[in-house]
Amino acid sequence: MEEKPNLQDEILEETVPEELPVVEELEETDSEEPEAEPDPQEEALLKEAKRAEEAEAKVKDLQDRLLRNMAEFDNYRKRTTREKAQSFDNGVKHVAESLLPVIDNLERALGAAQDPEDSFVKGVQMTHDQLLAMLEKSGIKQIDPLGETFDPHFHEAMQHVDDEAYGESEVVQVFQKGYVMGESLIRAALVKVAN
């Protein structure tokens, strides 16, 4: 028996090609479609967004510069205030240093006075007290370390004496009083120290 070709197979072979060129053509035509022109409103929005970002960056930069300038000005103000106070203190110290020999001479005159009730001695005493009050008002205090323990930061030892009646490193005599302004030494006290 002779085999007859199957009709279904023959029809399928004729109608269905092995390759599908139609699909390829469709793909090619899809990719070749012309691109749509950009929307002018979209372009305008993008430009505005870019300008807004640039403006925001500029504002942040200006704010940073403003804060730095404010901090710098505050530091300048504090520094000038501190320098002004220091200049004032230096001026007061300079005037006090000029007046100390006058005060020393008034104290010597009072120490040599025979009659403390004499009107001339009272006038010298009042002048002395007035100068000390003026110095104290300016923040300057007198150091009179008699009977205190010797402190090399505020006292200068001129003599040394061995005497059992006094304690260790006790100031037994003051030759010249010292002066301080706050914690700053203007003049050290000249003293005699016992061992």
Q: What key phrases describe this protein's structure?
A:
195 residues; alpha+beta; Hemagglutinin Ectodomain, Chain B; Nucleotide Exchange Factor Grpe, Chain A, domain 2; three-stranded antiparallel β-sheet; three-stranded mixed β-sheet; 4 helices; 6 strands
What this model shows, in words?
It is a single chain. By secondary structure, the protein is an alpha+beta fold. The chain has two domains: 44-138, Hemagglutinin Ectodomain, Chain B (Alpha-Beta Complex), CATH 3.90.20.20; 139-195, Nucleotide Exchange Factor Grpe, Chain A, domain 2 (Roll), CATH 2.30.22.10. It contains four helices and six strands. The protein has helices spanning 7-15, 21-31, 40-112, 119-137; strands at residues 140-143, 155-161, 171-176, 178-181, 184-187, 189-194. Strands 1-4-5 form a three-stranded antiparallel β-sheet. Strands 2-6-3 form a three-stranded mixed β-sheet, with no helix packed on it. Strand 4 and strand 5 form a beta hairpin. The longest helix is centred in the middle third of the chain and has 73 residues, at 40-112. It is elongated and about 120 Å long.
